[in-house]
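Each field is listed here:
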Amino acid sequence: MSNSQEPKTGPLAGIRVIEMAGIGPVPLAGLILGELGAEVVRIDRLKAPASFLPLPPEADLDRMGRSIVRVDLKAEKGTAFMLDLCRGGDILLEGFRPGVMERLGLGPDACHAVNPGLVYGRMTGFGQDGPLAQRAGHDLTYLALSGVLSTIGPAGGKPVPPLNLVADYGGGTMFLIAGVLSALIERSHSGCGQVVDAAMVDGASKLASLFFSMRFAGLWQDGRGTNLLDSGAPFYDTYETSDGGFVAVACLEPQFFAEFAALLPLPEALAKAQYDRKLWPEMRSVIAERLKQKNRDEWAELFADTDACVAPVLGLGEAPEHPHNRARNTHVGEDGFVRPAAAPRFSRTPGAPAAASAATSERSHVATVLSGFGIRHASTRDLLDSGIIVI
């Protein structure tokens, strides 16, 4: 694991990011940008409420890889410090309800007055405008209103929360990152920053683009568990094995289905009728009965060197030990904490896993990082002595 006090590497080395502390999409964006080489300073309120997820510091990825500074945002000197930070920053990320940053004196107009080139990333559930802009919500709320939640779950069953991966992190974090990096590229031509309005309802909706197309074309019908990719097709679903484990079957293309059918095996009549929907109930029954005859790992071994698109359903504790994941170093670990490595990968400027927050919060290190934003060491000492900032 990299030492946070070594020079930053990665494709975003030299980019300075201000992350206003929050939960969900913004901290993950800060983590990813930091692991790609950006220098990230996380700003906590001076009297921040306790997290409702009491993670130990050595496993708190929402704080790793950043310099963490607590700031009295209600004091004029605290606001002045933040504007000085913005003056030397490239990207600001915030996830408050619309208007909160303006009330703190840190809205886009105030920040762009000191740094016209600042990319100002705003992450919300409903966006900066619209009748729901001021309402509270979480991943499941936004996913419900996007229409996506209605598609997830078994036939005849209720909609199932897909963790908080789709709206929070897919429609939120990833669209926020795409937005601020796009604005950063545009700034290289115009010299001007801009505001990025990233809303989780918008992002989750965009992720479902294919399904809107399929619905228009009559290839998708409302209702869970009745379509090609929502477990409606027997060759795109999960099945229980003899030991209570599960395997995922995803042989959509005919050539992959043929390989699956031969190895399972399926009766010839079913093997030759992959897309005959009238036979899907019988096909599902036969597949389920057959897969119940071996345990999960036996099926995994049988299908391992094939293109049948069958995989064991691994737990989070098992995934890092899978031979493919081990070969690619998909996960990293230190002191027993195993977690995903930096992604994606770069041929010349590789990123590095975020280091523990304790290392990034040492006073001398934070003062050095702040100096990169143009804040003098003497100013940092004065702010520390007066209690405006705490490290």
About this structure: The first helix runs from residue 25 to 35.
